[in-house]
Amino acid sequence: MKPIAPSDLLDNLNWRYATKGFDATRKIAPELWTTIEKATTLAPSSYGLQPWRFVVVNNPETRATLKGVSWNQPQITDASHLIVFCRKLEVTPADVDAYIEDISRTRNVPASALDGFKKMMLGSIASPASLSGGSMHEWTSRQVYIALGFFLSACANLGVDACPMEGFDASKYDQILGLTAQGYGATVVATAGYRSIADPIAAMKKVRFPLERTVKHV
Amino acid sequence: MKPIAPSDLLDNLNWRYATKGFDATRKIAPELWTTIEKATTLAPSSYGLQPWRFVVVNNPETRATLKGVSWNQPQITDASHLIVFCRKLEVTPADVDAYIEDISRTRNVPASALDGFKKMMLGSIASPASLSGGSMHEWTSRQVYIALGFFLSACANLGVDACPMEGFDASKYDQILGLTAQGYGATVVATAGYRSIADPIAAMKKVRFPLERTVKHV
């Protein structure tokens, strides 16, 4: 690993802003986009179950349709890339089995050595009220938001602009992208690309509470 | 801004793992920890409202007490730092007013120029069912998870180990840290520090679904 200088990290994160005005002529290079995808999948999730799917919408007609159910926000069509962060609707015992097999194969350990871990996961999904957020829906949604954080942070560190978006009709996204039938649900959206030189927000100072207000030491 | 080489970013994120065994003798240097705090507060949130507080627990006795309501997980006391990510219990019209004033002051624009934005925020918090997650509780929790993503990503890029944790009794944390009276609720926890050379998990290969399974292009 190769740590970044602390001041570089803060510079990169201060450079980041929720880009509303993208330069529609600039595309993220394919290899760079793949890096962003990989960085996103390296986010942690509860037990490592990865209860998510990330749908990258390239088709211009589909993007135009999605814009119509996203308050007509121009980023949806202007940005280089549109990514829909989806949660898995149900995490089932079969998912746990497949995950245990994956660990066993990847790490070359007998599945039997993972029995305690497996029972813990099965117990958790059998009582959704015990999960973080109190339901499977919220538990998986929260994991998806960790991935969103990794995505946005990766973009900033790679010099790519991005905009996280909650202002969209999730059930319409589910329909348009056929997500429900695949067992997923649209949870949060992001666009990525390069800021337009005409975007006045880019030059504005970031608004944050002072550190002493947000972080308390006890 | 100073973009990182894509391969360095992926190396750093692959180096990251949910550290269970911390070296209890190693502390994160104060300036480095402050950088991590700042990086975390640079996470985006819905409208930029920052409906969160991050409580860093330094007191050893408090940490021992919290360990007892965290399934006795050793990270709680062994790690260099313990941070409790809290959501704001209610985002009120007064919060919106204060935020508008903050923007106005920071960016030197008249508050009246922000009237449309203000009305949008007031409308959102007045109808919590319209918020992401369908309630104020879940909406703010999801924002907190973005901050968790920024925190973990910052740690990885700075060469600091960390462990996100959902396995704790949130209502007990609220009591022990007196959070409810301050208007906050414990949502997710993380520990940070340096991995113990004795932690066998550190050397294990990361388990992730193949990229083609997790990311779909349409």
Defining traits:
homodimer, 218 residues, alpha+beta, NADH Oxidase, four-stranded antiparallel sheet, 10 helices, 14% strand
In short:
The structure is a homodimer of 218-residue chains. Chain A has 218 residues and is of the alpha+beta class.
Task: Give the topology, please.
The structure is a homodimer of 218-residue chains.
Chain A lengths: L5 H10 L14 H12 L10 E5 L3 H9 L6 H4 L2 E8 L4 H15 L7 H12 L9 H23 L2 E5 L4 H7 L2 H4 L1 E10 L17 H4 E3 L1
Antiparallel strand pairs in A: 1-2, 2-4, 3-4
Helix pairs in contact in A: 1-7, 2-7, 5-6
**CATH class category label of chain A:** Alpha Beta
The percent range for strand residues of chain A is: 5-15%
Helix content of chain A: 40-55%
Number of domains of chain A: 1
Structural class label of chain A = alpha+beta
Q: How large, in whole angstroms, is the Cα Rg of chain A?
A: 19 Å
Element-by-element helix/strand order of chain A: HHEHHEHHHEHHEHE
| Strand arrangement, major sheet of chain A | 1-2-4-3
Q: Which architecture of chain A would the CATH scheme give at its second level?
A: 3-Layer(aba) Sandwich
Major beta sheet of chain A, specifics? 4 strands, antiparallel
Contiguous runs where pLDDT drops below 50 for at least 5 residues of chain A: none
Number of strands of chain A: 5
User: Which fold name fills CATH's third level, the topology of chain A?
Assistant: NADH Oxidase
Oligomer type: homodimer
